[in-house]
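Notes to self after the call with IL:
- keep both proteins in one doc
- input above output, always
- annotate only the second one for now

Protein 1:
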Amino acid sequence: MPEDTSQLGLVLTGGGARSAYQVGVLRGIAELLPRGARCPFPIITGTSAGAVSAIALATDAAHFRRAVVAIERVWRDFRVHQVFRADAVSMLRSGLHWALALATGGWLVHPPHSMFDNSPLWDLLRRHLNFDGIPRGLYKGHLQAIGICATSYAAADSVTFYASSPDIDPWQRAFRKGARTQLTLDHLMASLAIPFLFRPILLQGQYYGDGAMRQTSPLSPAIHLGAGRLLIIGVESVVHKPAAGTAPSLEPTFGQMFGFMLDSLFMDQIYVDLERVKRYNAYGDVRPIESLIVSPSQDLTDIARRHRHELPRSLRALLRTVGANNAAGTQLLSYLLFERGFTRELITLGMRDARARADELRAFMAVNAMTPRTKRRPAAANRDA
């Protein structure tokens, strides 16, 4: 096991409300470290909801446990109205807006920018995140790089906006690139802007949306930022359900199809990229990239089904209208269920899974052999990832 912990990277995938599971895993990791330890991941990347935790860790990189507890405190008391307006008046206003826009062909009323108004999330993150902590962590050496991913609607590129030590250069590959910048709340909200659900964000003359949309290589940003070992915390269950058997096939509802789209958006490319890393490691003349993925040991859609009653009545009515209130549509429900009963159960599951794999995590992270971090330019072979 290598002793150079400066090459340890953390990859946090997207997943909406499911990302509460990542908070639980981070809490379990914090238990493996001595109290007062700094962040064990000098390189952090996040996409969509995973970008929120990534930024929170980076803004307080000198105190890992404190940062994790702060994230957990928010997720344990989450309510939908802290993310988007879901009261009856707001939902009715949104529905009427869509109806008038469709009825008039957009002439009388312009089409809405999104299905939901996520201004409450802007306010929540503005209160809890101090972006000034990122340059401070970089200057003091507690952090080597932090990157969050968004998608450019104009260029159709996956863009990793990152802050790092000076020796990490921007990169350009097919449909993906890295852009050094001073990270702000606007960059984070761009990464969170799930298409149709939330409004795109204007950055430097271009509109950006959720980072998972064009992210064909989700592990690449962390590798470009210098990581040689990747700890990936996903939100897709490792539990595989049995085939449906001979039950009659029903036409999927809109809610079911949209949930399937979100599932594909956030999950599929991680495992494809892990296979790509394995093929890369097969070459004998390159420095191998090690990886470890932590995923839920239970099906999160089953957990979401038990907590659907916690959603505001107006949102339950909307989900019922689009066909996302039955068993087949629970995937969509699991991404929108920002309610504390659901998020607390996912946090508990994440902690339990991390504790069950404590020895594996210690060995991979070299917890007992961490040395002072030194700035190092990533190997040329890995920078082609």
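Protein 2 (the one to annotate):
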Amino acid sequence: MFKVIVSKYAFKELLKIDKEKQQLIFNKIKVLENGIFTNDKSLKGKHKGKFRKRAGNYRIIYLRENDVLLITVVRVAHRKEVY
């Protein structure tokens, strides 16, 4: 079981999304909390060390720190503007 922390910036972005899509994103964050990382991709370039999880047309960008079982959600945004 991982502890998930959502940054203030990511939380503000999440509040701007409509309720139906918010629920999908919350469900994906719950999956992260359970330690299921299937179909997640590691990012390259300036985002190296971060991972992304798909939630419909939205992406959840997060950092995974294995030593302390901590996941920090850095950003939640539409796929066109997340990178």
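Annotation: The chain has two helices and five strands. Residues 14 and 76 are 6 Å apart (CA to CA).
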